[in-house]
Design goal:
single chain, alpha+beta, Jelly Rolls, 2 domains, four-stranded antiparallel β-sheet, globular
Length: 225
């Protein structure tokens, strides 16, 4: 189970009564993106929020030297562009599809505000989402500030296990299929790819995990690290 709330399996319009669905169904459209297509750029108008129906999207920004910094990678059911709800006028980050078949439902922020005014349950879910998104970013900042590279990698693997892992009852192993490239992980953890490789190989040599590409298996003894 995931340790933070997302809009997975929640249809934005399902919680509305039938006459409200009729009023807003024209806004329920889907845009399609290929890999590396941008959903929006930094400084674009912040007038929509986006729900991922299929595929994956990375959120990040570029430093003054042009280096890409990734804040997070989101997948099916997750919401992004949420700062528009709080009154942000211009984006301070970019959103880019990283799958060849990414489908996104954009919702105008004025429409979303109407939905929130009309439905208290929906409003509570939106605020709960915002709260947990902020807490997750705070946890990541604490990890970057106060933990060394190895501890950051171990914490990240535990997070992957919670989000994408499936436990095998027979062996106790946790099988993970995740959406991140090696470059993505290194960037998220504030380290280099060579350092990440050294740490992952060290953990593999200690026989607490195995990995290949986007597949990781954590053995029960990984929890004792």
């Amino acid at each position: 189970m995931r340790n933070f709330w997302i809009l997975e399996k929640v249809n934005l319009f399902r919680i509305l009564c039938p006459h409200k669905f009729s009023a807003y169904k024209d806004c329920h459209v889907f845009d399609h993106y290929k890999k590396n297509d941008y959903v929006y750029f930094s400084d674009d108008a912040s007038n929509k929020v986006y729900l991922i129906e299929k595929g994956k999207v990375k959120i990040g920004y570029y430093t003054e030297t042009g280096e890409e910094q990734i804040k997070c990678i989101l997948s099916k059911g997750e919401l992004f562009g949420e700062k528009a709800i709080l009154g942000e006028e211009k984006r301070n980050e970019f959103a880019q599809a990283i799958d060849n078949r990414t489908t996104i439902c954009p919702v105008g922020v004025t429409v979303l505000h109407d939905l929130m005014r009309d439905n208290q349950s929906f409003t509570l879910k939106i605020y709960k989402f915002l709260n947990f998104r902020i807490k997750k970013l705070e946890r990541r900042l604490e990890v970057l500030l106060f933990k060394d590279a190895k501890d950051r990698v171990v914490d990240f693997l535990n997070e992957l296990a919670l989000e994408y892992g499936e436990c095998c009852p027979e062996t106790g192993n946790t099988m993970i299929e995740h959406p991140y490239s090696q470059k993505n992980i290194a960037c998220l953890l504030g380290t280099s790819r060579p350092t990440l490789n050294i740490i992952m190989n060290d953990l593999k040599n200690k026989e607490v995990l195995t990995y290949k590409g986007k597949y990781i298996t954590l053995f029960p003894q990984f929890l004792k690290i």
